[in-house]
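General statements about sequence and structure are easier to judge against a single worked case. In the encoding step, the backbone of a single protein was reduced to a row of integers, each denoting a local shape. The record that follows shows the chain in one-letter code together with its fold in token form.
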Amino acid sequence: MIARKQTRKRTMKQDQAEAVGEQANQQVRREKQPESGRFRLDVDGQAKHSYATYAAAEEAGMTIKKNFPLVRVAVYDLFAGVNKIIELPKVGIEQHG
């Protein structure tokens, strides 16, 4: 006689338990590393990098703003809770007339 391979029946509880376990693993992988600097650079509302000094964050933000003038670039102070938007310097236009 040919032996049949036995299959195990899966219960709905086992399926749900595995799904919960997979979701927990994905959530752990998505967690970010803690911020290391006081000043966070935000581009279009998304945190990109943190810096120890405001000057370093502002310099990086200005570089991004010069290359991509339409995006919103801001430096957020984590301790003071203040958000400063980086803007390009205004070019003076003389109007005659």
Summary: The mean pLDDT is 80. The first strand starts at residue 39 and ends at 43. The longest helix spans residues 12-30.
